[in-house]
């Protein structure tokens, strides 16, 4: 701003200086024509009386008038009135003859920066008329203009500087707050948030940052809970493995090692299954899971899963019903969708009383596929309902059943990996219905 302002004022100064000089030249030229007219008609004597008459003395006082002959001798000279002294003979010495002086010429003041503009031209054969005027009036105007320019420029620069500092601090305040919040979070305080403040360009950044920290805090909290649960779930089979191994080592029976190894392998299988499911969920939630999409008949896919769980359902005297059209085909990862349907059926069987049914409904339209599993159990409590998708979370009703608490987390993660979503509705009288919705891919 300061540079642009300075350039503008310098440009204005030279424009005004040029205009004033042009105006002075026009005034001098007009005065030359006036005096030339008088001298050409009435001669030098009448010119002298014309310039010194009471009516013209004050009007002509700023102008220097000189009449020269062809040899450069001064025939008539009327000095001008100005504050500074000028050496008018100096300008004559610069030229060999008056004819070489025709047009505009300039001489400087003896002890000042003012100049004296002189216009020379012929008025008759062998006669040259010079009319000149000092630039002191013009310089006074320019000096006042420069003073005004400097005052305005310095005032505006100081004001704009103060305003710029204030506005910069105000604009950078959200970034400073964001930096302080990040430093606090870096020290481990995840409860810190950026104040969104008033509507401005950085408010969206603050809101986005807060949403990001909210998500990170939820993920870290879930990770801590998951680690606590995993540590508890892994500790039990590891303890069993250790006890079995120690008992086998202390036993003197030769055949005790084989049953011990079988039990150890079974417990290791539980740990491996837990870790595999956790890795699958992590891959799905992070978006790194690789889906192998195929166009499959969804009814056939569901039937193959029902066959696996039919024996478990028969033991509990639960009937599995499949409602699906033969022509429902969709682009899916068959292995992942089998795991989705299997986990939903497994949960439905676990929490359904005997002599009830589990209904699986498959239907689609032009934009989405819906796989719905409904049981006739006692439903999910309002406190547990928001947390059923969390890893390793097990509600009060599920603690008496076998499982790791990863089934629904796996379902949700695999559905999200297909760019879909899950829905759940539950009541104590109607049971629980969980739906997996898949869009066209």
Sheet having the most strands: 5 strands, antiparallel
Mean pLDDT: 81
The helix tally amounts to: 9
Task: State the shape.
Answer: rod-shaped
Percent range of helical residues: 40-55%
Helix vs. strand class? alpha+beta
Q: Could you tell me how far the N terminus lies from the C terminus, measured between alpha carbons in angstroms?
A: 55 Å
Radius of gyration from CA coordinates: 51 Å
State the order of secondary-structure elements, H for helix, E for strand.
HHEEHEEEHHHEHEEHEEHEE
Segments where pLDDT lies below 50 for 5+ residues?
Answer: none
Strand content: 15-25%
Number of strands: 12
The strand order across the widest sheet is 2-1-5-4-3
Short description:
This protein is α+β, with helices and mostly antiparallel strands and 441 residues long. The protein is built from 9 helices and 12 strands. The radius of gyration is 51 Å and the shape is rod-shaped.
